[in-house]
Design goal:
With 429 residues, the protein is α/β, with parallel strands linked by helices. It has a domain of 93 residues: ANL, C-terminal domain (GMP Synthetase, Chain A, domain 3, 2-Layer Sandwich), CATH 3.30.300.30. The chain contains eleven helices and 21 strands. The strands form five sheets. Strands 4-3-5-6-7-8-9-14-13 form a nine-stranded mixed sheet, sandwiched between helices. It has a four-stranded antiparallel sheet with strand order 10-11-12-15. Strands 20-19-18-21 form a four-stranded mixed sheet, with helices on one face. The N terminus is likely disordered.
Length: 429
């Protein structure tokens, strides 16, 4: 149910008390699982093979009884049983539209008034009177049309620009006094730089004041440039095409992304499927409970994140993802904790003295041992290295929740540029 005057919030689910939210999501999950089991042959096959009945899935914790469905599974099932791989839960003639994601994977949608992305745009401040360029493709990908509809759900005017045509985009943004941008951070930076090359003063000659990003991470340095140099208020969201919508979105606090109540979202150990607690890094696993057309239960995104249950000053009560830290294939588990390449880069390159680094994981005497090798840009005295090692170790602990066992300062050139950031040399005998 929508909040009558909306104000800060798009609907009442965003401010639902924690216990009420848990009850609501469990009810939605139970209904979704039963519907998928009885109407999607592939879902029924997965449940039966796991020896699980839909009646056994009554809470989010119960999902651990089921295997994780991965993109490769969808691709293979759609090849063997085209076009939807046995996951469709409604008659073919009731499908509103079909999207296509890489694989290829065909994604059936029944709109049914669902506001997939409207909460995310509303939280970013899009309102009636805004003129917003949508620079995502209007094609087989769901992004363009779903974002367009969400912009309209917020009352704003949508300009369907699509991708490319940089100079036309710039002209349109200036002519229409565009106030909002929807796209990737890198493309907005490209537009700004090209406008300045054309002789414009972007901050003075354009009306852009708000930007919403997805599709790639918003680097803190780029956010600082947008907000500090150009006075553009920036927001980001996390979406996965196979599940048909935004999974999490930033509020004005910009301290993590609130989980959408249209999904049951777990953070799990990708090796075991077991759910992890707040602050633990694992794979984001999604079960849509708003789109009962598509019988996906426990879809593994391959993306790594963690979450917090700490209250947010904005008033929204959903837990928050800390941001996407990388892919499960780009991480290694050390003493029960994931060490993620993107996090380690964030730590090491926050120190101006460091030019390169590499993490090596070994397992002497059946215990994981992590060594952080560091190349410095210039010479440093032993006392300086000791201070740097102490600060680096502490920051590593703060960000990655694990300390290196040792930090080795190596000669310049000792770490080849083409080598991976994390090397796992463990053998399991």
């Amino acid at each position: 149910m929508a909040v009558k005057d909306k104000g800060e919030f798009f609907d009442e689910l965003e401010i639902m008390p924690t216990e009420a939210r848990a009850k609501y999501l469990n009810q939605q999950l139970s209904q979704t699982v039963a519907h998928a089991y009885h109407h999607a042959p592939a879902t029924r096959e997965i449940f039966d093979k796991a020896g699980v009945s839909p009646e056994q899935i009554r809470s989010i914790k119960d999902l651990e009884k089921l295997p994780i469905i991965r993109k490769t599974d969808l691709i293979e099932r759609q090849k063997k049983n085209p076009p939807y791989g046995g996951f469709l839960t409604i008659p073919l003639e009731d499908i509103d539209r079909v999207f296509l994601s890489p694989g290829p994977i065909y994604e059936p949608i029944q709109h049914a008034g669902i506001k997939w992305f409207a909460k995310a745009f509303w939280a970013a401040g899009f309102r009636k009177g805004d003129v917003v360029v949508n620079t995502f493709t209007y094609h087989l990908s769901p992004a363009g049309i779903l974002f367009h509809e969400a912009i309209r759900d917020c009352g704003a005017t949508a300009v369907p620009m699509g991708t490319g045509n940089t100079e036309l985009q710039i002209q349109t943004m200036r002519d229409l006094k565009v106030t909002g941008f929807v796209g990737t951070p890198s493309f907005l930076m490209t537009l700004i730089q090209r406008a300045e090359e054309m002789g414009y003063n972007f901050r003075q000659d354009f009306a852009l004041r708000r930007a919403w990003f997805t599709g790639e991470p918003l680097a803190p340095s780029l956010r600082k440039t947008f907000e500090g140099n150009y006075q553009i208020d920036t927001y980001q969201a996390y979406a996965v095409t196979e599940t048909g919508g935004a999974l999490a979105y930033e509020c004005r606090q910009k301290s993590g992304m609130h989980l959408m109540d249209e999904y049951v979202i777990e953070v799990v150990d990708p090796a075991t499927g077991k759910q992890l607690g707040p602050g633990e890094v694992g794979e984001v696993v999604v079960t849509p409970v708003h789109n009962k057309v598509w019988g996906l239960v426990r879809f593994g995104t391959g993306d790594l994140s963690s979450y917090t249950i700490e209250p947010c000053p904005c008033g929204r009560t959903a837990s928050r993802l800390s941001g996407i830290m990388g892919r499960a294939s780009d991480a290694v588990k050390v003493r029960g904790m994931f060490v993620v390449a993107r996090q380690t880069e964030q730590v090491c390159f926050s120190f101006a003295q460091i030019s390169r680094y590499q993490i090596v994981v070994r397992r002497p005497e059946q215990r994981d041992e992590m060594t952080l090798k560091v190349e410095l840009k210039g010479q440093a005295a032993e006392e300086e290295k000791t201070k740097l090692a102490s600060a680096l170790s502490q920051k590593f602990q703060d960000v990655c929740r694990l300390r290196p066992d040792r930090i080795d300062f190596v000669e310049k050139g000792a770490i080849p540029e083409e080598q991976p950031r994390i090397i796992d040399e463990r053998t399991w005998e």
